[in-house]
Amino acid sequence: MSKLEEQLQKNILILDGAMGTMLQEYKFSEEDFRGERFKDWPVSVQGNNDLLSLTQPEAIATIHRKYFEAGADIVETNTFSATTIAMADYKMEELVDELNYESARIAKEVAVTLTKENPEKPRFVAGAIGPTNKTASMSPDVNDPGFRAISFEELRVAYKQQAKALIEGGVDILLVETVFDTLNAKAALFAIDELKEELQLDIPIMVSGTITDASGRTLSGQTAEAFLISVSHIPLLSVGFNCALGAKQLTPHLEVLNRFASSGVSAYPNAGLPNAFGEYDQDAEEMASQIKEYLEKGLVNILGGCCGTTPEHIKAIAEIAKEYDPRKIVKPEFSTLYDRNDE
After folding, report:
1. Is 179 helix (H, G, I), strand (E, B) or coil?
2. Rounded to an integer, what distance in angstroms lies between the CA atom of residue 197 and that of residue 180?
């Protein structure tokens, strides 16, 4: 953690871009997703990108390498949906340990190789922990508002399994990302806290929420400040936002985090807003020019890209970020957050 924190104080760290966007370029078929091992699997697996860590590991390693070579300091493992909860869609719950371990191992292998080539630029791996496809705060049934499709305990167990396998695979950071329901995230953080105690391991944690629309709130209804308060009970390497919005639309929410957060602040927005076909048109130059506002205002410590971004986007962001100092990590003079040191 000390090496990572040291880098965070010196430079704006660059996170990678979208894994899914890069995988789309391969145009993998159902057979490619299955590989030989899963050729007789009873349900369709096309679209299960996490499975590609087992069936197309070279493609995953190549994407990680491209992002590192574009200037990324941190890459995320290919494990966004690698929980028993999300894998139930493909009847692949029993593969969760292997999916997370192998995804972490692949990314770590690339990181170690490139760090050896250039020790002045250490490379790190963040274990990606997605939100799952169920929400603990809201009912999926408009006719039964009290119904919940998942419990806090079920989430805790699933997240703990995922985090343990990621740690065993060699990740340097755990990244709880694309948080649309903070109760889900709190289950993940609770599970990670348990693991840290059991393993006697102080692994850094990043948390990244997602503002879903122009209301400036998460899907479960929290503002940026409320989201920050909800996750500030645990020591974090960084807190931030990703996905849903483009760089320009994310600025006011990062300003809130900058004002109140006592950890680092991260941002990895989409390449603009999607067009009518759900595609992202913003090129690398335009996205970097919008992200420049973050840098001029001193809002961020970690920068990357989400949906629609490629190594070209990350290269442009990394180039522009070199010209700026990272946001200073200090305790805010005034904060609405509960401070345990005041007890």
Report:
1. strand
2. 27
Would you give the DSSP letter of residue 301?
S
Strands (E), the chain: 13-14, 74-76, 124-129, 173-179, 205-209, 238-246, 264-270, 302-303
Question: Are the beta carbons of 230 and 268 closer than 8 angstroms?
Answer: no
Mark 255-286 as b/e (b = at least 16 C-beta within 10 Å).
ebbbbbbbbbbbbbbbbbeeeeeeebebebeb
Query: Where do we find the tokens 């609770």?
Result: 190
Sheet containing strand 13-14, strands side by side: 13-14, 302-303, 264-270, 238-246, 205-209, 173-179, 124-129, 74-76
Contact 124, 4 (CB under 8 A): yes
Tokens of 265: 């602040």
Tokens read off for 114: 């490139």
Residue pLDDT, tens place only, 278-328: 889 899 999 999 999 999 999 999 999 999 999 999 999 999 999 999 999
Task: Note the pLDDT tens digit of each residue in 102-114.
Answer: 999 999 999 999 9
